Every structure is written in structure tokens, then in C-alpha cells.
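hey m, so remember when u said the C-alpha cells were messed up on ur end? i reran from scratch. heres the input so u can diff it against urs
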Amino acid sequence: MKQADNLLDKHRRQEGVSGSWRLDRSVPAALIVTVVIQFVGFVWWASSVNERVTALERDIKQSSALIERVTRVETRADGIYRQLEKIDRKLDRIADKR
């Protein structure tokens, strides 16, 4: 095993390759442009998501106000319905007396 490691080290020294990672300075321009375009696209997408979330939050606030109003109207309508039933029963009793 040691012989293989020594042989590998000798080969690396001959080739001028170190055991650690290196970043070569010759990065293609197309790669840089692609990364920049992807970053701009991500920022644009994130911005549109933020706008959509803000709009949904605004809609929810408006909806909750409407839900409250509808609940109050339904409660009033139930009360009115009960009163109408009482009036109807009273009218029926008056009509039965005659």
C-alpha cells in the first residue's frame, strides 16, 4: 500500500500536480454569463414571489373583514327569521280565535 502511495506522489511531482484542489484561471466566459443570467433570473423570480405573497396577504385581510360582515348579517337574518316565526304563530292564534 505504501508503495502505491509513494508511486502516486512521485507521479504527481513529475506532473506538477499537488494533492489539493486548485481553481484554474481559465474559466470560460460562457460559464460566467450563464451563472450571472441564472442569478438575475433567481432574483427576478424571488421578487415576483414576494409580490404575489404581498397581494395574497392583502386579499386575506380584505376577505377576513368580509367574512366578519357576512357573519354579522347571518346572525341578524337568523334573529329576523325567529321574530317572523313568532309573528306568524301569533297571527295563526288570532286567526284561530275568530
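this time it looks ok to me. Residues 29-97 form the longest helix (69 residues). if urs says something different then somethings off w ur setup not the seq
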